[in-house]
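Usage

Read records sequentially. Each one opens with the input sequence:
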Amino acid sequence: GLAIYRLTIKCPRCSGEIAIKTDPKNHDYIVEWGATRNYQHHIAEARKAEEEEARLEKDKGDTLAEHNQKVLDARKEMSMMERIEELQHDAVVRSTVTDEMLLQATLERHRRKEADPDLLAEDEAEAERVFKRKAREA
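and closes with the structure output:
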């Protein structure tokens, strides 16, 4: 087997004697006297494994919550797909509208405003309302 070594050192603060020995079976060391371990990884790993096991047991028993989560995920995915379809539709519409068409629509709107003073007054009232609201928010 593997050799076990005992190490004896002096504490740099108090000059007390500390003895440790190797533990080849666990690939670790054991404090014999004069010190205490701050961290014991095998205990921490065992505790972590127990917590994970407890969480899994809780999740197994909580099938209703799991089902609800699946429903919520499906709804979220459906809304995302609808949004993607809307964006794709908007992209198609934008790609079919040319600069010439936008210019024609703007000119037509301008001509209608000149012909109908009520439209011009409505636009001015709307603009004034919007700019007053923005001024209050700022």
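Summary fields computed downstream for this record:
- The chain has a mean pLDDT of 83.
- The beta strands are 6-10, 17-23, 28-33.
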